[in-house]
Write a structure and sequence with these properties.
The chain is an alpha+beta fold and 134 residues long. The protein has helices at residues 3-18, 31-41, 46-54, 59-78, 130-133; strands at residues 20-27, 89-98, 102-107, 113-118, 121-129. It has a single domain (22-133), classed as Alpha-Beta Complex (Ribosomal Protein L22, Chain A), CATH 3.90.470. It has a 3-stranded antiparallel sheet, with helices on both faces. Strands 3-4 form a two-stranded antiparallel ribbon.
């Protein structure tokens, strides 16, 4: 590995260590349904986002709520001296990527088979403090 590539890799590794994030891989729901919930909490303060997810009727909101609690726990492990209430933590970015698709066949009339696509997705959630932003 060349020096420039190594320096860039180290810089990216340091940036990743500074972030508080959590990742949910291979969640068995379609990315479109998950994006509806992700758009709901993007850019919102953490406690308000938890309340919104708790009272949402969508199934995907339960999984995003658990992911948000995991990201909060990761933030607390990195910043042991700070209190969550004083930090003004918010959801900086949340994005949903398509995961693998399982392809199945459903029997159809006249000897045919219809294809069923069982989609999955990957969700990444990043937290940041408003104090760091200024």
């Amino acid at each position: 590995m060349g020096a420039r590539k190594r320096n860039m890799a180290n810089q990216m590794k340091d940036e990743r260590k500074a972030k508080s994030f959590s990742v949910l891989n291979d969640c068995p729901s379609s990315p479109r349904k998950m994006r509806l919930v992700a758009d709901m909490v993007r850019g919102i303060e953490v406690n308000r986002a938890l309340d919104m997810l708790k009272f949402s009727s969508k199934e995907a909101s339960r999984k995003v709520e658990k992911l948000l609690l995991s990201a909060i726990s990761n933030w607390q492990n990195k910043n042991e001296g700070q209190r969550l209430e004083d930090s003004n933590l918010y959801v900086k970015e949340i994005f949903v990527d398509q995961g693998r698709t399982l392809k199945r066949l459903r029997p159809a009339p006249q000897g045919r088979g219809y294809r069923i696509r069982k989609r999955s997705n990957h969700v990444t959630l990043v937290l940041e403090s408003k104090q760091n932003n200024n």
